Amino acid sequence: MPVFKELRSPLKKNNVNEKLLLSVVVPVYNERQALPVLYQRVQAVLQSIPIKNELILVDDGSKDGSDDWIADLALRVPNVRAVRLSRNFGKEAALTAGIDHANGDAVIILDADLQDPPELIPQMLQAWHEGADVVAMKRRSRAGESFTKKTSAHFFYRLLNRISDTDIPEDTGDFRLMSRKAVNALAALPERNRYMKGLFAWIGLPTTVIEYDRAPRAAGQSQWNYLNLFHLAFEGITSFSIAPLRLATLAGVTTALLGILFAGWIVIKTLVLGEPTPGYPSLIALITFLGGVQLISIGLLGEYMGKTYFEAKQRPVYLVRDVLQTKSVRLTQTRTQGHQRDAA
Ligand code: UDP
Ligand code: MG
Q1: How far away, in angstroms, is 334 Cα from ligand 1 center?
Q2: Which residues have a beta carbon within 5 Å of ligand 2, which is an ion?
Q3: Is the dihedral of CA 308, 309, 314, 317 positive or negative?
């Protein structure tokens, strides 16, 4: 991507670069309380930067009125577009929808709960302008998150990176800027199972990392509970590594070898010491253990098979209920929507 001279001083006003468009994508699920502050802060930043911009709010099937608030805003404010999904598809799908509906030369992803400060956008643009295709925001600190969440996240990333071929950076979340090239690369990945962090890492491209302090939630509660997080972690591991399958094989080989050794030992013992019949407890223990190993292995196989099954169905990642924006924008936008995926 060519470097744009006009961007040298990103904060200079009244010198809008008409050729460049920045899209800010925000996935929203039950964030009614945070939305007004979010909008205010993002808009203030967008007005201070010298390139054209659009704010894409993706409603992920909210049930607290966020969907109506977003729709109302999009119909009033020209640079806001509302993409409302037909139900709750999860953050990964909402992000995919937002990215698919973004027309920008650069796309920034931001959480609706203001944990990712929009005030960092100029800094991200600067890094993009200096040639980065991806500007990944790394959390220096995570205020307002529990010790358990922090440590489990830490160990999860260590484990994931050890067993997968793609290096997924710790402490960088979805908060990032992507150039059009990176966005197109992401959109071209055909898989339905969209573990975003893994996909981001997979595409690679020149990346600048900027550290920031993650704020606590502005309002409401995190939509994640530990079960969800476990699910996401499992998703991450099984989407980006087949190490668990190998582990199952390894466990199988090990137990089989132990079984052979044990059989040999029994033969020798019978020859030397005769044939008493003790050993029911150890037999039961062995059977239970092996049964457990077998069930785990089958479960793992099922997990990967299930993934293949869902990919094979070729269902879209999300379904759009409607896309709303002011009329004037809609007219100019129809020309530039060539990259939308089948689901839209
Ligand atoms: N989110 C979403 N769909 C969901 C869950 C969450 O679009 O099913 C959005 C949510 O509105 C927020 C972002 O994803 O903008 C991050 O969610 P959350 O704050 O719950 O996650 P955390 O910050 O705890 O990782
Ligand atoms: Mg959050």
Answers
A1: 29
A2: 111, 113, 115
A3: negative
152-171 pLDDT, tens digit each = 777 877 877 777 777 777 77
- Binding site membership of 28 for ligand 1 (Cβ less than 6 Å): yes
Q: How far apart are alpha carbons 235 and 156 in whole angstroms? A: 12
Note the pLDDT tens digit of each residue in 212-236.
887 777 676 666 677 777 777 777 7
Ligand 1 binding pocket includes 27 (Cβ within 6 Å): yes
Domain assignments of the chain as residue spans, ordered by start: 2-240+317-343, 243-313
Q: Is the CB–ligand 1 distance for residue 113 below 6 Å?
A: yes
CA of 115 to the centre of ligand 2 (A): 6
CATH homologous superfamily for 2-240+317-343?
Spore Coat Polysaccharide Biosynthesis Protein SpsA; Chain A (3.90.550.10)
